[in-house]
Amino acid sequence: MMLSATTPMGTGRSSLEEMLNSLRRRDEAEKPKDLPPALPARPTSRGRLPSARRSLPTDFKVCGNDDGKGVGNGGVANEVKGKEEGKRKEKELGSKMVSFGSKKMKRERSVDSSPYVDEEGKNPQLQGLETSNCMSEAGSTQKMKEPEWDDNIDYFIKKKLRVWCRLPCGRWELGVILSTSGEEAFITLSNGNAAKVATGELLPANPDILEGVDDLMQLSYLNEPSVLQNLHFRYSQEMIYSKAGPLLIAVNPFKEVNIYEHDFVTAYRRKVMDSPHIYAIADTAYDAMMRGEYNLVYSFLIYGESGAGKTETAKFAMQYLAALGGGSGGIEYEILQTNLILEAFGNAKTSRNDNSSRFGKLIEIHFSTSGKICGAKIQTLVQLAAGERSYHIFYQICAGASSSLRAMLSLKRASDYHYLNQRECLAIDGVDDAQRFCKLMEALDIIQICKEDQEQVFAMLTAVLWLGNISFQVIDSENHVQVLNDEAVNIAARLLGCSTQELMLALSMHKIQAGKDIIAKKLTLQQAIDVRDALAKFIYASLFDWLVEQINMSLEVGKQCSGRSISILDIYGFESFKKNSFEQFCINYANERLQQHFNRHLFKLKQEEYELDGVDWTKVDFEDNQECLNLIEKKPIGLLSLLEEESNFPKATDLTFANKLKQHLSTNPCFKGERGRAFGVHHYAGEVQYDTNGFLEKNRDLLHSDFIQLLSSCSLQLPRLFASKRPHNSQKMPNTSCQLGSLDSPMQSVGTKFKGQLFKLMHQLENTTPHFICCIRPNNKQLPGIYEEDLVFQQLKCCGVLEVVRISRSGYLTRVTHQEFAERYGFLLLETNIPQDPLSVSVAILQRFNVLPEMYQVGYTKLFLRTGQIGAFEDRRKQVLRGVVGVQKRFRGCKDRRYFHELKKGVVALQSCIRGENSRRHYDITSRSASRMVGAEAIQRNEKL
Ligand SMILES: Nc1ncnc2c1ncn2[C@@H]1O[C@H](COP(=O)(O)OP(=O)(O)OP(=O)(O)O)[C@@H](O)[C@H]1O
User: Does 120 have pLDDT greater than 70?
Assistant: First the structure.
């Protein structure tokens, strides 16, 4: 019989309720009496009947319980009281720091103001939960308190335990407290020196045995110096990966470390190694995906600052998945080769990173039902301008093209091209561009881009370089120009497949509409340079998009598609330079969104789940970045909207844009108006100063319709294709500062396009089960062995690592429905008289294995377990299954042996029967023929006589 859990309150107690109550009483009795001092606070809640703060979902049913009574009790009074208590606590907290457990608040939100809303404005994962600066209404929240360290200093003195003390220089040093006097403590430092330190500068240190633990969760004291020292210790031992609860931390080694070879793949696959590693995460996700119990789609979200190692980590994850899902078709090899192509065309050197991704990518790897890779799909985020060196591919082709290719393209050295020689460096230490070009050619072959297309790709690249070399001559007093008819324009025209005259005309004149007539207007020097650069940019960006399309076609997921996939997100890392422009703004905006995703999954949705399931939970504060996202995204007054508006406004300049920002946004605490064209934004990772110089131009992405016409008339196929992808001139482009608009191609502005792509990515990721990997850059010099504590701590703080550990310690890392839990571990129960509904089975399993009460919480629909518990159940399951298999083996062996013996006996009997019969028959025949012979001989003898 089905029992609805929403039976009205106040009816008699169900057997389930009785059971949960007795469980609670037992828990209370077993509550530890004297916890050691200053250990991290544990939640006071124990496994208990979920409180009836809110009614259960109407469709919630418990199978098999036939007493027909609900599990809820408590009543409305409790609910109201709880809400009031929650509201009181809300008031105590500021608006910026949002506690773990922030609950819904009605917010105005249009469909495009969040990537998490679908067309109807609903998201199944978000129903009942709206984000951000809203406080919990829940009654059972408790703000997690850090251990009262001050009270325990005496304990540390008595036991001579080590402490961390912050020296006046800011460094943390280990020592032992000798005595205290008022607010001061006298310390013996680990180097033998004595020091006098304010007690406020002391923090408890972890015992030696915890040095270099795999998971920060294991630290008794979770504080800045302990975490830093733990990661430092591991880093110095080349253990670059560590865990922080559900997070994987990867500290960039800036050198090759021998932890990625095939042996490691095998070891992680066979589960003989369990130390933190990207392989371990990939293995867990792969297994979960193949089991398909919770979800079929998983994702790795790799985040961290520029140069922290995201792209490398993504590649190692792909490498592991390729090893696991490698099929006979070799598609996994193709997938790995795409990295080479995308990095060549999409990465560039910056001051932070020699191989910085200037685009964001999400790669979805699809698997068949048998676990083999059956395809992949790449989505990219707008490609942004390169840094101090242009995109790698330009230097690679200049260094590595064969002599025949050079002759065909009229290719020169990198230093001969204006677009390349204006930058600070032409070569990167330790990088052989020529060799990389050879590898790129191989990769293009593997991706099945035919030789003809490859030649066109190289022609487009070289055309871009030659376009940059085109120069102009001023021809009148109004600064109008004409193009110099030199080798640059001739070669560029030849490579594009158009006539030199047409190209020269398009670069020096612009057609505009005057009533019904079209008139040609001469361009000034600056306008001509701008349109030339816009054309070069357009060709390069179109080429990149075309390459991604080709890759996707080559990796297309075939018929084997089973819905199983693992996506890897690798986007440009947070950037803050001395001078930050539109590119940094877009990059940092993307990182804000990613941070929001992180917050939602590790803080907000978790809390929502606890609450919906009636579980007590412990509150942990975390830094919410919704305010910053509002500053950027809000309509109509947000940074992007104002940029869009100003970009469409005649005569607007970067300065008027900056003034507009100051006028409208200064009330937002994340905005800081600066002098002139500058403004500042408080990002989650720190404040960044932006210079609006070039913002409008870069956002407009304006390309003359003259060029679209020119490209459509080219003899080569690629430029024609690029032109065809550009929207037609059906709409009028608003006038711009240089009045080039009336016939120009009405492209979506870069900011709007960027936001759209970002939302699409985030929306897609929302359906996946995420694994977060936080990459840390240990120094700014890109050198191995240097671990700058301040820099590392700043990144740990930005990534919310400490908060995640706190939540994981106070929360329950594993959540599994009673149904799944009962199905998987129910057979471990020996008793047969247990009600067969999943909740009862779950509780019976917990009792059967004496799981400590603080290690779990029983929810309405799910069981919440602390770290390690599910592992223990899995071990027990494996052990029992192994035993069962052993018994079955012996039994079957015995049965088969007996059968064999019987069969053998039967066969022998049968054989002896048949042989006897045969012999007898044979004997009969021989004896008869013998007697015949004897008779014949006797007759013959008689006849002779
Ligand atoms: N696991 C690793 N082993 C060895 N070297 C690494 C590792 N991770 C990163 N590196 C080194 O650090 C450099 C920067 O890493 P990577 O390009 O992955 O950074 P990123 O976070 O993707 O930066 P951006 O956001 O600028 O693209 C790499 O070129 C490589 O030299």
Answer: no
